[in-house]
Amino acid sequence: MRTLLSFCCLLVAVAVHNVTSSAQELDANVVVNMQAIPIDQRQELQTMANDVKNYLNNQRYTGADWDGARIPVDVTIYLMSRNGNTYTARLAVVSKRLVNNVPGSGAALLRIFDQEWTFDWSFNPVLTYQTLRYDDFTSLVDFYMLLAIGLDMDTYEDLGGTNVYKSAQTIAQLGAGRGINAFRTFYQPGEFTRSALVNEMLDLRYNGLRRYIFDYHDAIDQYAKNKDAGRAALTQVIADIAQFKRDKISNRSLLLQAFFDAKHMEIADIFQGQKNSTVWGDLRFLDPGNTTVYDKARGN
After folding, report:
1. Which residues of the chain are under the pLDDT cut of 50?
2. Residue 44 contacts by C-beta under 8 Å, 6 or more apart in sequence?
3. In what order do the strands lie in the sheet with 107-120?
4. Rounded to an integer, what distance in angstroms lies between the CA atom of residue 170 and that of residue 30?
5. pTM for the whole structure
6. Per-residue pLDDT, 46
7. How many angstroms separate the CA atoms of 184 and 194, rounded?
8. CB-based contacts of 13: which residues, under 8 Å, 6+ apart?
9. How many other C-beta atoms can be found within 10 angstroms of the C-beta atom of residue 14?
10. Of 266, 120, 274, 113, which is closest to residue 194 (Cα–Cα)?
11. Which contacts (CB < 8 Å, 24+ apart) does range 3-12 have?
């Protein structure tokens, strides 16, 4: 199980080893798509991918040593337009949860495509993690990195990501204070905003769902060792999530949808050809948008 070492142990580790290689949480890969930017306006952008990658792979978001393999995360920045040093962009984030903490294994845990982003960029920027003020570039990236870390921690420890979600919520509050529409705090039930997503993750009413996400990944770890036992455990977890939705969720759940946005292909692969499994009915109820994927996997 992944744990955070005590602050005292961290001080010793830093003094002796000057921060070990496991201190950071992320193993990030960054791609910058500049196709929408004229070729003669790309000079300042040539190092963006490497700058962001170095920033993410050296930032310690939890403030403590990280025990275990780093979280794989793919970040793609789609630059859409430029006006001086100001850019509009879209941001795609896909993080993976390792199976039994084995590097190179696993499937997506968070899959986000954020289409509202405006920031200033200049050559050789200084990228820093801001906890007291909102930065138009780093704060959005940090927000999603914190969600990725929190989700990962939730799969190893009961509600393990709570404090990290609180850090993401602070960024959301700072963004809302800046008047950034995608961080707005006034939204309809079930409407996606960045604030709505992180607020749901911290809503006590959804603790049960977070615990089922833990159970799901415990079953995934079991499946890697024993497919029949793991598949049976996954069937039960998905049935439990369906019951939770019936009993506890009255509006669209952003957390539930985010879970299936990331997991539907993994689930379909695990239950491929299991025509008589009860899981298919639960999946149609939980994730109707991916019914075609499930029907194909079942073999209809």
Report:
1. 1-21
2. 85, 121, 122, 123
3. 26-33, 71-83, 86-97, 107-120
4. 25
5. 0.91
6. 94
7. 8
8. 5, 19, 20, 23, 65
9. 13
10. 113
11. 3/67, 3/157, 4/62, 4/64, 4/65, 4/66, 4/67, 5/64, 5/65, 5/67, 6/64, 7/64, 9/65, 10/64, 10/65
Q: Which residue shows structure tokens 């960045």?
A: 194
Q: What radius of gyration do the chain's Cα atoms show?
A: 20
Instruction: Return the residue matching tokens 């990962």.
Output: 152
Maximal CA-CA distance, the chain? 61
Cβ 85 vs Cβ 69: under 8 Å: no
Q: Which amino acid is at 175?
A: G
Residue 133: what are its φ and ψ, rounded to 5°? -145, 155
Beta strands (DSSP E) in the chain are 26-33, 71-83, 86-97, 107-120
Going by C-alpha positions, the residue among 298, 246, 254 that lies closest to residue 276 is 298
Helix axes 254-270, 279-286, angle to 10 degrees: 150
Instruction: Identify the pLDDT of residue 157.
Output: 95
